[in-house]
Amino acid sequence: MSVHLRPEEIEAESFRVIDAEVGSHSWGPDQWPVVRRAIHTSADFDYARSMVFSPDAVPRALEALTSGRGIVTDTTMALSGIAKPRLERFGISVSCFVADPDVARRAREQGITRSILALRAGASDRGNGIFVIGNAPTALFELIRLVREEGLRPDLVVGLPVGFVGAAESKEALLALEHEVPEVPFITNRGRKGGSNVAAAVVNALLIMAMEG
User: Fold this and answer.
1) How many angstroms separate the CA atoms of 10 and 150, rounded?
2) N or C: which terminus of the chain has fewer CB atoms within 10 Å of its end residue's CB?
């Protein structure tokens, strides 16, 4: 391959390779761009098998984005990975409270993770509706608790925490939530894999679709 290809040409070629290697699949036309971008970001074809969408996740996500609903991330890496020009197009704010000194202080005092308190801080602002979790299972578990016990109704949950302790379990808890509170849309995957980069890629794919729509 030529090293002189422009960025957009490299991306197009990457997508061609992904399409060819995955071959036929059962993803719908509104789901495949999200799955493909997750693969593109991670070079991991397992996402072609492990991703899960609630029935109306993509249209609900596009509605939330075009309405300017705020985004809360669990890490600054996920926040940094979401394309800011696309956010500006819809007047979307994006926030992450995990590095907030007050959150850190209260987490020490209460003996819980910063991710839990950071999630609560983001959820307390009614302008926020999209929750993007790519690292901390505790943040996803807390979000699920807020839905079950305190009536939180996110516009979208992107639940892709990564790791060996609680990551797979938190995603299964999110999947189970579909039967209890079906009005909460989500995009997730099964298993230990995930990450802030993949979570941001999912949001970027949705933003591109919103701009094209």
Assistant:
1) 46
2) N
Spatial separation of the C-alpha atoms in residues 42 and 188, rounded to whole Å: 15
Q: How high is the pLDDT of residue 213?
A: 77
- The angle at the Cα of 120, spanning 130 to 109, to the nearest 5 degrees, equals 155
Which H, E and C letters describe 162-201, residue by residue? CCCCCHHHHHHHHHHHHHHCCCCCEEEECCCCCCHHHHHH
DSSP 8-class letter at 91 = T
Q: Which string of DSSP letters, residue by residue, matches 127-171?
A: TEEEEEESS-HHHHHHHHHHHHHH----SEEEE---SSSSHHHHH
Report the length, in residues, of the chain: 213
40 catalytically annotated: yes
User: Which of 98, 202, 125 lies closest to 156 in space, CA to CA?
Assistant: 202
Taking each helix axis from N to C end, the angle separating 137-150 and 114-123, rounded to the nearest 10 degrees, works out to 40
pTM higher than the cut 0.70: yes
What 3-state class would DSSP assign to 72?
Answer: strand
The amino acid at residue 97 is F
Phi, psi angles (nearest 5°) of residue 154:
-65, 150
Angle between helices 114-123 and 101-110 (to 10 degrees): 120
The amino acid at 49: R
Q: Which residue is it, tokens 């209260």?
A: 106
* Half-sphere CA count of 17, side-chain side, radius 13 A: 13
Q: From the first residue on, what is the mean pLDDT of each consecutive set of 10 residues in the chain (213 residues)?
A: 73 95 96 98 97 97 98 97 95 96 94 95 96 97 98 98 97 96 97 98 98 88
